[in-house]
Amino acid sequence: MGNKEEGGDVPELFETREARFRGVFKVFASTIMGSICLIWIYRLTNIPTSSSGRWAWIGIFLAEVGFGLYWIITQSVRWSLIRFHPFKEKLSLRYENELPGVDTFVCTADPIMEPPTLVINTVLSAMAYNYPPEKLSVYVSDDGGSEFTFYALLEASRFSKYWIPFCKRFNIEPRAPEAYFSQQYSSLQDSKFAQELLAIKKLYEEMKNRIESAIESGKIPDSTRKQHKGFAEWNFNIKKQDHQSIVQILIDGRDTSAVDNDGSRLPTLVYVSREKRPKWPHNFKAGAINALLRVSSEITNAPLILSVDCDMYSNNADTIREILCFFMDEKKGDEFAFVQFPQKYNNLTKNDIYMNNAPQIDEVELPGVGGYGAALYCGTGCFHRRESLCGGKYSKGDRVQWNTESGKNAHRTVDDLEESSKVLASCSYEKGTQWGKEMGLIYGCPVEDIVTGLAIQCRGWKSVYYNPKRHAFIGVAPTTLEVALVQHKRWCEGLSQIFLSKYCPFIYGHGKIKLGAQMGYSIYLLWAPISLPTLFYAIVPSLCLLNGVSLFPEVSSPWFLPFAYVFVAKNVFSVLEAMKHGSTLKAWWNGQRMWLIRRTTSYFIALIDIIKRKLGLSETTFVLTDKVVTEDVSKRYEQEVMEFGSSNIMFTILATLALLNLFTLLGGIKKLVLDLDSKALEQLISQIVLCGIIVLINLPIYQALFIRRDKGCIPPSVMFKSILLASVICLMPIY
Ligand SMILES: O=c1ccn([C@@H]2O[C@H](COP(=O)(O)OP(=O)(O)O[C@H]3O[C@H](CO)[C@@H](O)[C@H](O)[C@H]3O)[C@@H](O)[C@H]2O)c(=O)[nH]1
Ligand SMILES: [Mn+2]
């Protein structure tokens, strides 16, 4: 058991390293700051006196104030970049015999959008961690209330008896079967391995076939239904939003006869579908997690909780051991409430057309907020201390007892545990309690994760953002523009809601988390308002160009310099930052497009919806992210062709903006050529460049409007609407 009793100078279980070049960066940032101030001064001292363009001028000034302030907010995180490095060998030496239990929560909500085979891949990867199996439990929350998901889990519980020993014997990675089988094998020469691989792959395929054909036929075969008492729950007419609570313990980890093919114990596996009734709000994922928190506390009550979305399989079997280095560190471990991993995806294309992987966020901003001890909780790929999630406050000097196996359930039967758990998963259980307020995940916000993480930090806890080289969790990224934008709209709406609520980091977090962390949170919480200056910049300078109204200083004026410097320096910096973290130049460019599209569509619509909600006109919703696509769509995704193909209002907005800039660019150039006035050219060149960049970045949109003929192009109805709208806007006079 090592030297922990000796006290005093025990070596640390992890170290932190600060990013380099922070001094250089501070100098660079102050030159930008200086230029921004100069731009503001220029705007204030040069307001046009004539009526033409006066309001446009004031508007662009406000937009630049908006951009400038937002830029300042984004700086704090770049000053505090910290990376964490655990020493897992030391952990084993010191604590191998007192490792804590870990309860893994897997959430799923719909058997069509989140196929049961996807769910069990995640479940199997979580059951196969390099960790004592009797200390592992996996709870699946099925908000779809689907018999097929239950059936898939039953199949997985049987398959795990072969899968887990196979993983451990050959120490394979990753331990989600589908992902494992889809990669190249290096050691097929080893004939024993090759044999076993073929056998296990066959078993997996057979299982998958059984599950998929059951789903296809729409019913579970009677012979199968007889194999488990759990199916009886579906004898009633179960609807997704209207059913009793279901708790089925598929593997009871206490049972010493529940063993795998090698005779080793198995992790506990539990299926939970909380009660749903039409008149009870179910609070989406937050409600699901809270139900699991209670059910798991009844059954295994592990002190650590891992929560993952159903598409996020574990990609590293040692992850639990790594995060324990943070939690169990003698000096600092006690104050950590959670350890968050970045969200990584296995279905990205080379140039990441929808910017699903934003290095700026994963590699800079999130570790930056983490540097202030306030890493964001992002919903999936996160390990929590149960106590902190259930409302506990951090108090200094409270040493945790990790090994809390009390054996309180030793004499209770599975039936007994199931019955008492069902009560905990019922609708009425939370009535009049602190669940959703002080306890568990917070209700009423579509980004339950961010607000809950913030509340935990304001109770005194710290958190870690840990971004290891080998990705710890890998999921499915959106593969169509619509899904990507709808997801961002949900996030943006939820994030703004936090800013406007009592949880606003500057107020709620005041004196509890550092100012830098408050600013770091606000990078995201202020997504919605930043849509306005962006829209302004994408519309008004172009319209002014069309009307010959100049909004920027002439090239020969010294005032031109700060504009040029901010523009060039900011973009060069952003390219370098992206490429340093492995992006291609094209991916960066695609990212700029997505950045423009998100701000002018998702964030703008979210802003409108927030106002509507404030007026009492709409309610919180949660549009689930689809994790399956048709072959046609996925082929275009592979080729990095943008997918539209629906008449979502967001597409009308983005097509209108693209066309507007095309019209004004052509109109403006025509005017200049006809007038042949070099003075006017000098005054308008900035606007031509701006408008030209917007047109360049929108090339795929024109293609989708006029050239492409596949199913993913922009539908004619959207095209006509946007041509009409763009033309009308072109006719608007400039004040
Ligand atoms: O009523 C619901 C709705 C969703 N979910 C689950 O929540 C997870 C996330 O849903 P998804 O549609 O995949 O949304 P994403 O936008 O991809 O999720 C991100 O953003 C969410 C907050 O908006 C976080 O909760 C997630 O953890 C985070 O991965 C999935 O496992 C769902 O099954 C439920 O359990 N019940
Ligand atoms: Mn997701």
Automatic annotation (TrEMBL):
Instruction: Kindly list the GO CC terms recorded for this protein.
Output: Golgi membrane
Write out the GO biological process terms.
cell wall organization; cellulose biosynthetic process
Record: residues binding Mn(2+): K285, D309
Keyword NADP present in the record's keywords: the answer is no
Which Pfam families did the record assign?
Answer: Cellulose_synt
Q: Which InterPro entries match?
A: Cellulose_synth, Nucleotide-diphossugar_trans
Q: Where does UDP-alpha-D-glucose bind?
A: E114, D143
Indicate how the chain sits in the lipid bilayer: Multi-pass membrane protein
Record field: transmembrane: 23-42, 54-73, 521-539, 559-576, 649-669, 684-706
Write out the annotated subcellular location.
Answer: Golgi apparatus membrane
Query: Its Gene Ontology molecular function terms?
Result: cellulose synthase (UDP-forming) activity
Q: What does this protein do?
A: Thought to be a Golgi-localized beta-glycan synthase that polymerize the backbones of noncellulosic polysaccharides (hemicelluloses) of plant cell wall.
Q: What is this protein called?
A: Cellulose synthase
